[in-house]
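task queued by scheduler; priority normal; single chain, no ligands, no partner chains; default sampling; output format set to structure tokens
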Amino acid sequence: MSSNTNNTASANTNSNAVQIKGNIGQVPVLGNLPSGAPVLNFNLGENTPEGTKWHEVSVYGNRATYLFERLERGMFLAVSGVPSTREYKTKAGEPRTANKFRANWVTIIPRKPKAEATSAEVAPATLPEPPADMLTDDDIPF
């Protein structure tokens, strides 16, 4: 585990990792994998020219517990990780695609009231380095 100059909570990196920024849409939910390891799930709304694109974000290990205590609905985040998609059908039988995102890094971006904020003034929040005993990719069952 190495420190990051962007003050982010980090995990193993992946060459296919991408970063998205957006607001948490619902209250994050903390659960457990069958092994008992914690997993945090939340939806992140990314603003695009076509409208809001929703991502189902998952965070694993001790980082999940750490972030569960700090994240709230509406917070603005930068999330780096590995994206994937899941195909499913609605109850009416219509095909849909879900955008899933396995987060490696999460940065909380504080927002000032609109009257005071400028793009140069908004800086990422400082998060302490996560514990060394966090899960690795080999601990995740998929």
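post-processing summary
- The radius of gyration is 16 Å.
- Confidence is low (pLDDT under 50) at residues 1-14.
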